Amino acid sequence: MKNWKRAATGTVAAGLLVALVMKILGQSFMVIGNLLFMVGLVLIMFGGICVLAKGHLFTGWRHLWHRKEKVEPLPGEKVPVRQVASTKNAPIVVNTLARFGLVSGACYLILGVVFTI
C-alpha cells in the first residue's frame, strides 16, 4: 500500500470516527452528512489545485511589466517555440497530493450523501 493510499484511508477513518463522536454527542445525521460533504468538497478543490499546479499554464509567457508598460524581451532572446509547445502538450500530471485529495474527497462526498439520506 502506497503512502497516499494509507493517508487517504486514515483520513476517511478519522472522519468516520469524528462522525461517530458527533452522533454520540447528539448531533443529527443531517448535520454530520453536511459536514462530511463540505470537507469532501474542500479536499476535491485541493486535489484540483494540485493538478493545476503541475499544468504549466504560464509556459512561454515572457511579459515583463515595468511602470505599466510592456517591455519586450532582449533582442538576442527568442522564445523557444518547440520547447514551449512540447511542455504545454505534455500529459496531465497527477501527483501524490492530488491523488490523496481527490480520493479522500470523493470518499467524503459519498459518506456525506449516505449520512444525509
Task: Please explain how this structure is put together.
By secondary structure, the chain is mainly alpha-helical. It has one domain. The chain contains four helices and two strands. It has helices at 3-24, 29-53, 81-88, 96-116; strands at residues 64-66, 69-71. Strands 1-2 form a two-stranded antiparallel ribbon. β1 and β2 form a beta hairpin. α2 (29-53) packs antiparallel against α4. The radius of gyration is 22 Å and the shape is elongated. The two termini are 32 Å apart. The model has no long low-confidence stretch (mean pLDDT 80).
Quick gist of this model?
It is built from four helices and two strands, in the order ααββαα.
Keywords:
single chain, 117 residues, mainly alpha, two-stranded antiparallel sheet, 2 strands, transmembrane
Shape: elongated
Across the major sheet, the strand order is: 1-2
Overall average pLDDT: 80
Number of E-state strands: 2
Overall structural class, as computed from helix and strand content, comes to mainly alpha
Element-by-element helix/strand order: HHEEHH
Topology summary:
Layout: H1 3-24, H2 29-53, E1 64-66, E2 69-71, H3 81-88, H4 96-116
Helix pairs in contact: 1-2, 1-4, 2-4
